[in-house]
Design a protein that fits this description.
The protein is an alpha+beta fold and about 325 residues long. Among the domains are: about 40 residues; about 150 residues, Ribbon (Umud Fragment, subunit A). The chain has 4 helices and 14 strands. The strands form 3 sheets. Strands 1, 2, 3, 4, 9, 10, 11 and 12 form an 8-stranded antiparallel sheet that branches. The longest helix has about 40 residues. About 20% of the residues are buried. The C terminus is likely disordered.
């Protein structure tokens, strides 16, 4: 039996092949480990700030139908606002309802009114709801929330069991998992969760009715009786215009003639040439009964008594 002895170049090619294969294996292992670590880190970060939740039941109506998949933000730093859909935990499991009132808010339930829920004296306008509160067996009542309580209700008001019911009660802040931010399923609802823009923002408590009413009345009085920023100075009054017999001949006094009057415009309006217009009273030619002072201003002189008048007076 003849033994085959490979040549040097064949041995060199085989060594290169084995080296390339080992290098490829190391690259694949490194890439696999990198992907695993990246997925683990991504899942950790995602699970730290977000979670996924599925809606069960008709409580949220058309906003979140049964089977909807929602991306939930865990405990946002900005807190919660009225209108946010909260994911919270109860004995029955996770539930999602819309938050309508926060800590220290005052809630009034009037099932048979047009807007059955009032918060701090303000009726909530909720066009996204369906059904009637009166059909849910809710009784009229008033409640003031504690510093760690939230009032929630489903958008399907006829079928939802929520904080409107005495047995259900409010939810504690510690039981809240997060806020629903984005709908992932069904396809026709993909997008941000809506509804919160219809409600006034929650700012962490409310003022008492007396304080809020007093503030509104004060602002109203300030608007009605407000003083202007600058008091208009009294208009400067010019010296009384000279009145004489020439007034009847078309000579107007300074008080009758506007300061910005245009002689050309006046001439055009009266149909006379501009040169025919008589100058103002403070002109070189003084009217009868006036004397021209050294500075050019006309001074009114007392009228001279006629002899006829003196004779009549003596008689």
């Amino acid at each position: 039996m003849e033994i085959y002895h490979p040549k040097f170049d064949e041995l060199l090619r085989e060594m290169r092949r084995v080296r390339r294969e080992k290098k490829r294996n190391r690259l694949l292992w490194g890439l696999g480990i990198f992907l695993v670590l990246s997925l683990a880190a991504g899942w950790f970060v995602f699970n730290r700030y977000y979670t996924l939740a599925s809606m069960h039941g008709p409580a949220m109506g058309e906003t979140l139908p049964d089977g909807a998949l929602v991306l939930v933000r865990r405990t946002p730093e900005e807190g919660y606002r009225r209108g946010d859909i909260l994911l919270y935990e109860r004995d029955e499991g996770w539930q999602m309802k819309r938050m309508l009132a926060g800590p220290e808010d005052r809630v009034v339930l009037s099932p048979y009114s047009e807007n059955p829920i009032r918060v701090n004296g303000e009726e909530l306008q909720e066009p996204y709801t369906v059904g009637r509160t009166a059909d849910a067996g809710v009784s009229t009542r008033r409640l003031t929330l504690e510093s760690n309580e939230y009032f929630v209700a489903g958008d399907q008001r006829s079928l939802s069991v929520d904080s409107r019911n005495r047995d259900y009660g409010t939810i504690a802040k510690e039981s809240i998992v997060g806020r629903a931010d984005f709908i992932l399923w069904p396809i026709y609802l993909i997008g941000e969760v809506n509804g919160g823009e219809y409600l006034p923002n929650y700012e962490g408590g409310s003022a008492s009715p007396e304080t809020s009413e007093g503030t509104e009345s004060t602002e109203t009085e300030a608007e009605e009786t407000g003083t202007p920023e600058e008091t208009a100075a009294p208009a400067e009054t010019d010296a009384p215009a000279e009145t004489d017999a020439a007034a009847g001949n078309g000579v107007s006094s300074e008080t009758d003639r506007p300061a910005d009057a245009d002689p050309a415009a006046e001439a055009a309006a009266s149909g006379e040439p501009e040169a025919s217009k008589k100058p103002e009273v403070a002109s070189e030619t003084a009217a009868p009964g006036t004397a021209k002072s050294a500075d050019g201003a006309s001074e009114t002189q007392a009228p001279m008594e006629s002899p006829t008048a003196e004779k009549g007076a003596g008689e």
